[in-house]
Amino acid sequence: KHFSELNRIYWAHTPASTTIIKHMKQQTVDNPSKEFCKLFVVKDKDECRLAKDYNEWIANYKEFDNYTRLNMLMLLSSAFETFLRTVVSLAIESKPGAVLGCPDSIDGVFLLKKDANYGMINHKNYLFFDVIDKVCRGEWQNRVDAYEKYFGIAPPNLKNNIQKLDELRKTRNEIGHYFGRNKNQYETPILIAPKDVHRISHDNLIKYFNTVYTVVKSIDKHLHEEYI
User: Fold this and answer.
1) What pLDDT, in 10s, does the model give residues 110-153?
2) What is the rounded CA–CA span in Å between residue 13 and residue 15?
3) H helices of the chain, where?
4) Band of pLDDT at residue 208, cut at 50, 70 and 90
5) Confidence tier at 200 by pLDDT (50, 70, 90)
6) Mean pLDDT across the chain
7) CA-to-CA dists, residue 214 to 57, 60, 96, 131, 209, angstroms
8) Spatial separation of the C-alpha atoms in residues 41 and 15, rounded to whole Å
9) 8 Å CB contact between 15 and 202
């Protein structure tokens, strides 16, 4: 549902963006003598904030589009990480013997019936924080190794996308912690000049959407059918 929500939101913006660019270009050609700010529907008091001509506006608007895609990427990653933590915790709680390499040896439902606090992640005696973190945090090669340790062979769609998922993780961190800039560039305080923001095209963002969807479906099928 979160994935579908992000998909709907992005596809509400994308055609609007391409349409307004085409419209404003045509308006500029058709009305060369008209003050550029008068082509927009905006309060008079805010006209001073607008670009003076089409070239300035389109440069700024393309930057806005890029920031929009970066933020969509961060939301996509967050939705994915939320799913992953949820499904991994459910799988481990369902078959806690997986921690010991014998998943069918202990019935999680039996433990839940015995103790209502079993599986309550906010309870002080929750057992699986470390296990979940090994699958849900850090570099993706390490995560997949942990996944296979607890759940057997990882789905091919997960193993085949390790590099792409790590790109997603790194980019998300740069957006969240370094204003969409390269981490290494902003770790030296003496270099105070602003750096160029990370670029992501529409096509590459769609590839990330497809990667996440493919991986999530594979993990969900595996853990749902064999563990949860």
Assistant:
1) 998 998 888 888 888 888 999 999 999 999 999 999 999 999 99
2) 6
3) 2-30, 54-94, 108-114, 129-136, 140-151, 156-159, 162-178, 202-226
4) very high
5) very high
6) 91
7) 37, 34, 27, 24, 9
8) 19
9) no
